[in-house]
Amino acid sequence: LRVHIAYQIYDTLHPGEVVGEMTLLDGQPRSASVTANIDSHLLQLKQEPFYRLLEDHPQVAQALLAMLSRRLRARTADLSLTGNALAEQAAMPEISQVPGMATHSAMARDLLLLDKIFMLKDVELFAQSADATLEKLAMLLEEINLAACDELFQQGDAGHSLYIVINGQVRVHIGEQILGYMGQGKVFGEMALLESAPRLATVTAVVPSQLLRLHREPFFELLETVPDLMRNIITILSGRLRQRLELLASPSTGV
Questions:
Q1: Contact, 30 vs 243, CB < 8 A?
Q2: Position 137 confidence tier, pLDDT thresholds 50, 70, 90
């Protein structure tokens, strides 16, 4: 089979190779045409029975999420090497706070369930989920309070949680090299939620800070009972991966 756009050939596929896996996952339009060069015999897997399979076998869904996460990590690293991605600013942004939580003593109070649901709506992985699903997710969130200079985790630590910054600010760094800052509403660690991989950097609180933590194990237990959540996350991850693959395929802009 040849993969092509008009007369420009991008790839040639042989027995055992796969084509169309991104559309299987996210249902987006095909990005290229595929034409048989010679008489060919194929196996087709359609989207709906595929997702039913994932619902019946959660372990397959978990393996797929981990695979997408690894591919996304690798393609993001490729983009940073080619210079075809926007660089993060390491400058310290202004520290902002959630209205009504202006002091550290106020930050220490438990957040209402509704507050957590609204915060989850701003997390890309969960933004498409139904309110009932967000409520279940919100109930899994654990509040973390850090004093200034507290380390949340170190580079090389096993990753198994996602974090949302509610108030304050944390610094992402490798040794003394500052990679960036995370303030109110920022999310980090979502890849560690999906796959077991060492942390790539250390995260330290700049000022007293409050975060929400979502652990991997209860998250995957919830995935088994809410198939739509699993499907939404697969769609979002595959969309991110598709976007990075398109950037890698395009000429570097130097930006």
A1: no
A2: very high
∠ at Cα 167 (163, 172), nearest 5°? 55
Cα–Cα distance, 162 to 157 (Å, whole number): 14
Contacts of 5 (CB under 8 A, 6+ apart): 32, 33
Cβ-based burial of 34 (10 A; exposed 0-12, middle 13-18, buried ≥19):
middle
Supply angle C-alpha 189, 190, 192, rounded to 5.
65
How many Cα atoms are found within 13 Å in the side-chain-facing hemisphere of 92? 10
Confidence of residue 40 (pLDDT cuts 50, 70, 90): very high
Query: CA 39 to CA 128: how far, in whole Å?
Result: 42
Q: Is 141 exposed, middle or buried (0-12, 13-18, 19+ CB in 10 A)?
A: buried
**Confidence bin at 88 (pLDDT 50/70/90):** very low
